[in-house]
């Protein structure tokens, strides 16, 4: 049986520089997109511990759910704000384990990856040139889409492009906690503080490994009906577990549901639930 730890795994997902840029087959073929808009395969780069007896590590599921859209590349011109999301892995016996991921962007230091991205752009622009450039400079042969004299090609090269001599390339990376209970707010704070420690010019009070070890081995699950306070990198983190007589743990802000769906849709959704209608939520 599980010993009641707050978290079972700390996981890092991202770009494997040894295998390089692999198209993400799960996202479908997107070669018509510019290379910076394509999705590439992400890998589980590291996890700690290697395995726990009561919660076997599912590398394929964790890797896919940590970065469901695969790797994303950006340049210094793009927005690179960190994004947080959660997921659930349900096993065949109905048991669940919860995942909380913080995805951020870091600079690509591998010259091979930067060169590969530049090569993809050269290939993409050459193919676009062949397909879209008018066969002659005769204006009557130009289409209404503005392909005359390679206008569309030049726009393509300026928009969302990458020049290895001018641009800085960034790639998405993810840090994740796998936990037995859905303490979303506490896990989000843990990950945000770890990310802040990595990006801060000043080193944290202790090595990062100390904080990761603490969250995995020294922070217990709070007993039912009790709250727990433990130390993060830069401040205390608090979580509360409902008692057996209360509603089950639901640590997600209801405000986000209204922001995403709107009041009328939430009312309609609630009405459908009360009437026991089948409900399908479709999303990217």
Task: Describe the model.
GO terms for molecular function: guanyl-nucleotide exchange factor activity; small GTPase binding. The protein has 284 residues and is an alpha+beta fold. It has a domain of 161 residues: Beta-Lactamase (2-Layer Sandwich), CATH 3.30.450. 30% of the residues lie in helices and 20% in strands. The protein contains seven helices and eight strands; from the N terminus they run E-E-H-E-E-E-H-H-E-H-H-E-E-H-H. Strands 1, 2, 3, 4, 5 and 6 form a six-stranded antiparallel beta sheet that branches. It has a two-stranded antiparallel sheet with strand order 7-8. The protein is globular. About 8% of the residues have low confidence.
């Amino acid at each position: 049986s599980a010993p009641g730890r707050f978290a079972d795994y700390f996981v890092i997902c991202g770009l494997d520089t040894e295998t390089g840029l692999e198209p993400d087959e799960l996202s479908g073929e997107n070669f018509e997109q510019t290379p910076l808009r394509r999705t590439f395969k992400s890998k589980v780069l590291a996890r700690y511990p290697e395995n726990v007896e009561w919660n076997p590590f599912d590398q394929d599921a964790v890797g896919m759910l940590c970065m469901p859209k695969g790797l994303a590349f950006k340049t210094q011109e793009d927005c690179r704000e960190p994004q947080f999301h959660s997921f659930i892995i349900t096993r065949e016996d109905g048991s669940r384990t919860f995942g909380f991921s913080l995805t951020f962007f870091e600079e690509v230091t591998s010259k091979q990856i930067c060169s590969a991205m530049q090569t993809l752009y050269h290939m993409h622009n050459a193919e676009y040139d062949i397909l879209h450039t008018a066969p002659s400079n005769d204006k009557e042969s130009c289409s209404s889409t503005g392909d005359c004299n390679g206008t569309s090609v030049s726009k393509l090269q300026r928009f969302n492009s990458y020049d290895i001599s001018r641009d800085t390339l960034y790639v998405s990376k993810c840090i994740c906690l796998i936990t037995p209970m859905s303490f979303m707010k506490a896990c989000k704070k843990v990950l945000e503080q770890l990310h802040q420690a990595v990006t801060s010019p000043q080193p944290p009070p202790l090595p990062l490994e100390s904080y990761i070890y603490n969250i995995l081995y020294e922070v217990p699950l709070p007993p039912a009906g009790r709250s727990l306070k433990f130390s993060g990198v830069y401040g205390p983190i608090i979580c509360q577990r409902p008692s057996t007589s209360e509603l089950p743990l639901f640590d997600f802000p209801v405000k986000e549901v209204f922001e995403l769906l709107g009041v009328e849709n939430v009312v309609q959704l609630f009405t459908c639930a009360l009437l026991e209608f089948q409900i399908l939520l479709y999303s990217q």
